[in-house]
Amino acid sequence: MQRRADCLKDARILIVDDDQDVLESMNVAFRAEGAKTMTVADGNDAVRVCAEHKPDLVVLDVMLPGRSGFLALEKIKGREDSPFVIMVTANEGKRHKAYAESLGVDRYLFKPVPLETLLDAAAELLADRDAGSN
User: Fold this and answer.
1) Helix, strand, or coil here: 119?
2) N or C: fewer beta carbons within 10 Å in the chain?
3) Is residue 93 part of a domain?
4) 79 located within any domain
5) Do residues 76 and 106 lie in contact, with contact meaning Cβ atoms separated by under 8 Å?
6) Which domain holds residue 71?
7) C-alpha pair distances (Å), 117 with each of 30, 51, 54, 113
8) Which DSSP category does 33 fall into?
9) Do residues 84 and 129 make contact, with C-beta atoms less than 8 angstroms apart?
């Protein structure tokens, strides 16, 4: 696999979380790898930003104000040009994971997610996309 930094450099990543500390730590981690990040704190803004800015990847919390992560995921996925989506949640219920998978989530990670794990998952998805377009 390509180096993580190579996969993340210049990738457009939308981070969606209503916990400012989590949002900021993810933002700093992705920017340190060279990604171009956008951040929002609710599901309605996530859907709007995805439509307007076409990110390559979305890190999406499940429990959000305005529109839940699941409802946002429904709007974000399902198009030919839809971004990869990594959902992050503190809820370890199997039904939630199965539901997210039925909506097309690419990865489902449990909080607290080590930043290294999140960065590696994002890089793997983007590397797969890049390999498929060659």
Assistant:
1) helix
2) C
3) yes
4) yes
5) no
6) 4-127
7) 12, 27, 24, 7
8) T
9) yes
Domain count, the chain: 1
43: amino acid identity, one letter: G
Give how far Cα 21 sits from Cα of 18, 25, 28, 88, 93, Å. 9, 6, 11, 14, 24
One-character DSSP codes across 50-65:
HHHH--SEEEEESS-S
- 40 secondary structure, DSSP code: E
Burial of 18 (0-12, 13-18, 19+ CB in 10 A): middle
Burial group, residue 1, by CB count within 10 angstroms (0-12, 13-18, 19+)? exposed
- In this structure, are residues 44 and 52 in contact, taking their beta carbons and an 8 Å threshold? no
Distances from the Cα of 19 to the Cαs of 3, 29, 70, 115, 132, in angstroms?
29, 16, 17, 15, 34
Query: pLDDT tens for residues 68-106?
Result: 999 999 999 977 889 999 999 988 888 999 999 999 999
Residue 70 amino acid letter:
F
List the CATH number of the domain containing 97.
Answer: 3.40.50.2300
Query: Are the beta carbons of 7 and 127 closer than 8 angstroms?
Result: yes
In a domain, 25, yes or no: yes
